[in-house]
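User: Okay, second chain of the day. Same drill as before: sequence in, structure tokens out.
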Amino acid sequence: MWVKVTRTPVNVLLAATLLACLIGGCKPSEPLIPTVTPTGQPSPSPTAAPLLPVTPSPEPESYRQARQRMVDYQIRGRGVSDEAVLNAMLTVPRHEFVPEEFLGQAYADHPLPIGYGQTISQPYIVALMTELLKITPGDKVLEIGTGSGYQAAILAQLTDQVYTVEIIKELAAQAEARLKRLGYTQVHVLNADGYYGWEEHAPFDAIIVTCAPDHVPQPLVKQLKDGGRMVIPVGPPGGYQSLWLIVRQGEDVKMTNMGGVAFVPLTGEH
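Assistant: Same drill. Structure tokens below.
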């Protein structure tokens, strides 16, 4: 397979954001802007951060206001401009995906621990990576690393075909139940090693990966449609990696380096 690698210049704000990174759990400890205080605390034990039951209930106005501020200042203010993505971030109730003890930080500008050594991603990074995928209605999308299910819910606002793979059995079960209770019945959850994708439902129009392998998994590349897009951090564990936008062009791929990031490793046997 022939690979064309390019580096696309990004504006100063995006570059600064991507290079200011925070290390978290198996979901990425995403890049943050320099004004954000890093959260370097140890990840809680599996029982230390029980997730909220997600039976839908009337939403307090304070949450809607917090979500509006999140979109206006954290996301739109940093250059994310796709209106469909912005509307998705404004619609999904992020507070339903965080542990009870972190409800007050649900819309804060940083990741939050969700147990099992993992985090719910920083809102800006969720929006940025989603925008890079250029999802249109009807697209079939694969997510590697379900976590709490928040990213999958955002994807489900953009298309009715969302497949997500989570290696931790307990998180996969919790996310599946949560998404169904919140009405995201178009999201399909699989407990498996994400390195190998979900071949049964391939090919995919878009793939998003939220943990960093040390190389691009070929099973994922093969599961992209011709013209399909993948956003993935790649690099050594415990250090800085690069966020790559990969576009499949027949038997070839075009890789664009979007900047430096820091994610924890993609786990599994591969």
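The chain has a mean pLDDT of 83.

User: Thanks, on to the next one.
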